[in-house]
Amino acid sequence: MICPVNIRKFIDNLDANVMFNYAPTVSLSLGGKPLTEFWAMARILKQSMVKKIERLDAIEQLVTAERLHSSASKLISLLLQSKGSYDFAFSNVGRLDIPDTYADFRLERFLGVTVALPWRNCTTLVTTQFRGETDLAFVSNQSFLPRHKAIAIQQKAIQMLAAALGNNGYPHYADNQSAI
């Protein structure tokens, strides 16, 4: 899988309230024989990600991305034709650190997660946290992953996650299928 990395913390002049839309990726893999225990796999992936992020040179990534601007149209054309070298992307947006109350109204949740990648395989799992709740969104491209297969993957993933959490009741799942 590939994981976008939030490099804001590596850029001193970037304030928290400034929009910034660049996230280089790190690649993660379980290798040829994945473990069967969910939390063991999660720990291995987390350790690998931490090491790769520590080695990431944010300034070099930004300079390289700037150099690619003149080739953007050719790069997008290539990405639309290529399956890619990964099975999916995992994007942990993290905690959305904004106020939930504005004058006379209260923001309850965010909807409408999108993936703005020009890749043919844009299959992505996006997580966000807001007001103490974690939201998971599974996003894909119908031409790459047909809807029925995406739903089967989604159902299996929810089953595995619920089993790993020891919660087979799927407490909020039935209320949150609107994005399917």
Secondary-structure map:
Layout (H helix, E strand, L loop, with lengths): L1 E3 L20 E3 L10 H18 L2 H10 L4 H10 L7 E7 L5 E2 L2 E2 L17 E7 L2 E7 L7 H19 L15
Parallel strand pairs: 3-6
Antiparallel strand pairs: 1-2, 4-5, 6-7
Explain how this protein is built.
- The chain has 180 residues and is of the alpha+beta class.
- It has 2 domains: 1-67, no CATH class; 87-180, no CATH class.
- It is 32% helix and 17% strand.
- It has 4 helices and 7 strands, in the order ββαααβββββα.
- The chain has a 3-stranded mixed β-sheet with strand order 3-6-7, with no helix packed on it. A two-stranded antiparallel ribbon has the order 1-2.
- The protein starts with a strand and ends in a 15-residue tail after the last helix.
- 6% of the residues are buried.
Offer a quick outline of the entry:
The protein has helices spanning 38-55, 58-67, 72-81, 147-165, and strands at 2-4, 25-27, 89-95, 101-102, 105-106, 124-130, 133-139. It is of the alpha+beta class and 180 residues long.
What are the key terms here?
180 residues, alpha+beta, 3-stranded mixed β-sheet, two-stranded antiparallel ribbon, 4 helices, disordered C terminus
Instruction: Outline the biggest β-sheet.
Output: 3 strands, mixed
Percentage of β-strand residues: 15-25%
- Gross geometry: globular
**What portion of residues is helical?**
25-40%
